[in-house]
Amino acid sequence: MNRAKTWLRRYGRPLENARWEFLFEQGSKDQVIHYLHAFQNEDGGFGHGLEPDFWLPDSSPMATWTAGQILVEVGASQEEPVVQGLLSYLVHTPQIGPGMWPSVLPKNNCYPHAPWWHFEENAQAGWMFNPSVELAAFLIHWSPTESGGTLLGWESLAFALRRVMQATSMDRHELNNYRKCLSLLTTHKERFDAQMEYAFAEVESKVQDLTKDVIDRDVSNWGTGYKPLPLDFIQGPEDPLYPQLKELVHQNLRFYLDQRTDEGIWNISWNWGQYSEVFAVVSRYWQGILAVERYKILKAFREDLS
């Protein structure tokens, strides 16, 4: 971790350095919010390459989702101006389908981006409720009770739940959106059960089943390509799936440790195949993000493994 910290100081963004200090060195959440605010636009949404794989400066639901995850991580309150801006952006951004904010915007194509962020007609069919189901949870989590934001959040969630309850399989990223959504709404179970078409426990069980189906259990295959690994979903011993997949999770932890470079970080497993000069910068950004995310996971399991 000391070597990773040194690398991050040299090459990482200020945002990842602030998150590192918050997570591992009793750093201030205000410092994280300060650097996150640099990516926020006047409309309250986020852009400017906060999600490094697309460099659209304008606000987008996807970049705003990235910001929301960081705000959840530091325990930001609904009174924070940066949170108020995020909520305002979501409330005032038109949905393109029932419960769905656009995942990819046409203007993505005007700036350097990974191929999977390229806008095409009917692009939403490939993204579905990634990240909309989690955006709905942000609205419920941070908006005042019975406000327009809360009502929009529950309304959007109802459509997302129909999708997951009818699904027989799901993309790993969209599935993780559902998992994070449920995690954020655990304090709202009573209203969830009273208002939604499906009970919280019923949805949680379905999401867990889909998760078990999508995880790659072939350990020998993990070093090739972009596989959905156990730790992409199970990020702490408190996860309900952990007891069932404990040995596989431990193998994943060892895999992470073995895959570190001499500098204590990880190389990324994907490439844009275009914009090579920009991607050289992006890959550094992602190495910093992975360092923060993976040491956070290793810390979460430290006592369980000792």
Can you tell me about this structure?
This protein has 14 helices and no strands. It folds into 2 domains: 1-27 and 229-306, no CATH class; 39-214. It is mostly helical.
Low-confidence stretches: none
Helical/strand content category = mainly alpha
Compute the CA-based radius of gyration.
19 Å
Estimate nothing, just give the exact number of structural domains: 2
- Give the integer mean of the pLDDT values: 96
What is the terminal-to-terminal distance?
Answer: 17 Å
Number of strands: 0
Q: What does the overall shape look like?
A: globular
Largest sheet: none
Percent range of helical residues: 40-55%
Count of helical stretches: 14
Q: H/E element string? A: HHHHHHHHHHHHHH
Beta percentage is under 5%
Q: What brief labels describe this structure?
A:
2 domains; mainly alpha; 306 residues
SSE blueprint:
Elements: H1 2-11, H2 14-24, H3 29-37, H4 61-73, H5 81-92, H6 124-127, H7 132-142, H8 148-166, H9 172-184, H10 189-195, H11 200-214, H12 246-259, H13 276-300, H14 302-305
